[in-house]
Amino acid sequence: MYLDKESAVVKTSMSHEDYLEAIVMLGGTTEVPVRSVDVANKLGVSKASVNKAISALKEQALVIQPHYGDITLTDDLRAEGVARELINRIQNIRKSRGYEITDKIVLTFAADPAYADAIDQFGDYISRQVLATEIKAVENFDASKEGVETLELDELNIPVDIALS
After folding, report:
1. Could you report the per-residue pLDDT of 79-120, keeping only the tens digit for each?
2. Any idea of the CA torsion for 98, 85, 116, 75, to the nearest 10 degrees?
3. What is the CA radius of gyration of the chain?
4. Which CA distances in Å does 3 have to 7, 30, 47, 61, 140?
5. Do 36 and 81 belong together in one domain?
6. What are the residues whose beta carbons fall under 8 Å from the beta carbon of 50, sequence distance 6 or more?
7. 93 and 159 share a domain?
8. 75, 133 Cβ separation under 8 angstroms
9. If I label 124, which of 52, 134, 135, 150 is the partner at 20 to 30 A Cα–Cα?
10. What is the domain-level CATH number for residue 124?
């Protein structure tokens, strides 16, 4: 399942999620587009099955594919993936620090366009999931400050200060 911009859930079948996962694993960006045959080989399915699944994913605005062209994930879906990974990593940090489940936090990120879309589009969702009372992105972020964690997500290194509210 995936979120739309208003945080309503968009339902996706498990098999479609498998296709999305394969596209992510194979690249799925404008820099590393994916061919249908690569997805078929990865999942061990026919190219016709891939084309049918890609058509459904295009209708849900999760992937982009010009007529018989390469497949890429939409910017919104990439941003959602980053947001979900941020939530996962922040929850793990909360747990490792021994925070109570009800403890509210403040998140301060270094301002960076590489992940700004995820925070802008899904900031409310992130806040609700990690109990953040505030999410800030600052230009002059001090990554050497005590308590700052660097979250590694694929090629992104995201420094974040997580403090009790």
Report:
1. 888 898 999 999 999 999 999 999 999 999 988 888 888 899
2. -170
3. 18
4. 5, 22, 28, 11, 31
5. no
6. 19, 36, 37, 39, 40, 43
7. yes
8. no
9. 150
10. 3.30.2320
